TrEMBL record:
PANTHER family: RIBOSOMAL RNA LARGE SUBUNIT METHYLTRANSFERASE K/L, RIBOSOMAL RNA LARGE SUBUNIT METHYLTRANSFERASE K_L. It comes from Flaviramulus basaltis. Residues 61-172 form the THUMP domain. The keyword Isomerase does not apply. One of its GO terms (molecular function) is rRNA (guanine-N7-)-methyltransferase activity. The keyword RNA-binding applies. This is Putative N6-adenine-specific DNA methylase. Gene3D superfamilies: 3.30.2130.30, Vaccinia Virus protein VP39 (3.40.50.150). It holds the Pfam family UPF0020. InterPro entries: RlmKL-like_Mtase (IPR000241), RlmKL-like_Mtase_CS (IPR053943), RlmL_1st (IPR054170), SAM-dependent_MTases_sf (IPR029063), THUMP_dom (IPR004114).
Length: 400
């Protein structure tokens, strides 16, 4: 068969692939952001839930989601759903599934479980029971059984039980998607990459102004901002996705999708600036920026934010993650009062956003936030707050 016919046949087969249901997991408060991301990527049947968004697409779209979504932490592919009444019922129904289409008898697997049910109390036990059913099935049918590999399994399986409903999914991502691959150096309290990207997106920054993180730590906010500004897929630098070990892994399709996404990057004509008063943080941030290959867009300086002033008269967009007092021994009331004073006196023409879980300290900023958004930073209930610093007084602005 001529080469061009072979290529056409492969392309036709891929375009005829059926869509299947998927679930993208995210952080609380980011559901609508993620739903919008999925819609813009081309997802079908998008429906936001709590900490997740359901959607449909084909295999290539699954690859695309893992590469391109900024606010997703996992992409799951549900393969079976059933009601469950007991541990034995769970075992029997998982045993009855045809696992040979997903895993070889000589392969490796890992199972994790999330439980919201009065029937079961321990997720680790449910994961163990699921693993037992799968390996027993292989041993009974093939005479050999897969082994467990928690770090690099050929198949990562997710069990979700909500009351009496059990859903078995394949985890297409593997490690959480917040592990972008660029961060080799961290500080005491590094911000999660997905959280950082979501905060910037919630703040409405579109890459059309200068951006600043005045307490940049290991540089996560700066790097995520640069990738948003340039429309760079956030997970290009990951070493591996779980789907690369699946039996239907299509490297050619993956590379075409990767190439297509890279073709949609854009230029950025403003500044992204980071300050930190700790020399060690500045060193780590610069290392991570270099790893992300974003040196051309990001400038990091050793500065104490409280001793700085805004440079120039152009609009400035600021997003940062100040200390909460959870791990750092500082006077929170004074620290947050200094944030308010510095913004008010030294940063006119600035939209300043920051996240905090220290709701008492927030009262000492001395400014009235124009927006408050409830979020969680890990398990800490937090607020993302916005302060608008006008040029001159607010009264003066309306008098012009």
């Amino acid at each position: 068969m001529p080469q061009n016919y072979v290529i056409f046949a492969r392309y036709f087969t891929r375009t005829m692939e059926e869509n299947f249901n998927m679930v993208a997991k995210t952080l609380f408060g980011f559901e609508e952001l993620l739903a919008n991301e999925l819609t813009q990527l081309g997802a079908k049947d998008v429906k936001a839930g709590v900490r997740n968004v359901a959607f449909s697409g084909d295999k290539g779209f699954m690859y695309k989601c893992n590469l391109a979504l900024r606010t997703a932490v996992k992409i799951l592919k549900p393969i079976h759903s059933f009601t469950v009444s007991s541990e034995k019922d769970l075992y029997d129904k998982i045993y009855a599934m045809d696992w040979s289409q997903f895993l070889k008898p000589t392969g490796t697997l890992a199972v994790d479980a999330t439980i919201h049910s009065d029937l079961f109390s321990h997720s680790l036990y449910i994961a163990q029971k699921t693993k037992d059913a799968i390996v027993d099935k292989f041993r009974d049918t093939d005479g050999q059984r897969p082994n467990v590999d928690l770090k690099f399994p050929d198949l990562k399986i997710n069990v979700h039980i909500d009351r009496h409903q059990c859903t078995i999914s394949l985890d297409s991502s593997g490690d959480s998607l917040h592990k972008r691959g660029y961060k080799t150096a961290t500080n005491i309290a590094p911000i999660n990459e997905v959280l950082a990207a979501g905060l910037i997106m919630l703040s409405g920054w579109d890459g059309q102004t200068d951006f600043m993180d005045p307490m940049c730590g290991s540089g996560t906010m700066l790097i995520e901002a640069a990738m948003i500004a340039c429309n760079i897929p956030p997970n290009l630098m990951r070493k591996e996705f779980a789907f690369e070990r699946w039996q239907d892994w299509d490297v050619e399709l993956f590379e075409k999708i990767e190439e297509s996404l890279l073709g949609k990057t854009r230029d950025f004509h403003h500044k992204i600036i980071g300050y930190d008063k700790a020399p060690s943080a500045v060193t780590k941030a610069k290392e991570n920026v270099k790893n992300a290959q974003l040196d051309d867009f990001i400038e990091i300086k050793h500065e104490d934010f409280f001793k700085t002033q805004k440079g120039g008269e152009e609009k400035l967009h600021m997003v940062f993650n100040p200390p909460y007092g959870e791990r750092l021994n500082i006077d929170m009331e004074e620290f947050y009062a200094n944030i308010g004073d510095t913004l008010k006196q030294s940063y006119p023409g600035t939209d300043a956003w920051f996240i905090t879980s220290n709701l008492d300290a927030l009262k000492h900023v001395g400014l009235r936030p124009s927006r408050k958004i409830q979020l969680f930073n890990a398990k800490l209930e937090s607020r993302l707050v916005k302060y608008v610093m006008y040029e001159g007084s607010k009264k003066g602005k309306y008098m012009k």
